[in-house]
Amino acid sequence: MTKGSDATTETVETVETEAGPASITWHTAKKARLVLAVSHGAGGGIEARDLRALAAVLPAHGVTVARVEQPWRVAGKKLAPAPRTLDLGWRGIWPALAESGLPVVSGGRSAGARVACRTAAEVGAHAVLALSFPLHPPGKPEKSRAAELLGSGVPTLVVQGGNDPFGRPGEFPEGPYELVEVPYGDHGFAVPKRAEITQEEAVAVITDAVVEWTGSLG
Questions:
Q1: Residue 6 CB contacts under 8 Å (≥ 6 apart), including other chains
Q2: Considering just the CA atoms, what is the radius of gyration of the chain in Å?
Q3: In the Cβ-directed half-sphere of 43, how many Cα atoms lie within 13 Å?
Q4: End-to-end Cα distance, the chain
């Protein structure tokens, strides 16, 4: 499938990995200087509001967006496999992401953010975008996953909802990364109707932050 506009061309590619076939939905900028690869979490797919918004906005700023559907989702399974298998699938799609020769930013939301952090150094990621990084399971702050975030080894941006039960911005440790808060946002960046910002404004916080950050990457 191919769709096009003045700013972007959209295509879908199937990539074979050791964990099974993965799918990449490409939103290709006409004058790309970076590739941003983003994957989904354990409870949803590439139709998540933040991933769709990034795909709609970033190509006009010279960033090709690749929304990656992990093999377990392509296979129709409802439960994500172990982290080792998730990492295996991500490694398997990396050659397709890097084929253009452009720097590739490794990203994802929730479990996908963990994968991006864990594998960044190994695959040669230019940077990491961590959307809704699950710092800990809800109600269990003692089970911290901060080591994965702190160990990415490359420039990292965390975009976190202010009311994310998997880790609110104030819970994050100091470290070599940037953090942008989406006010009132939950783990899916949804904001309540009584919030002081609209859902559209909340999504714009995400896209504006990523546009600015990707523009600063060398």
A1: 30
A2: 16
A3: 5
A4: 32
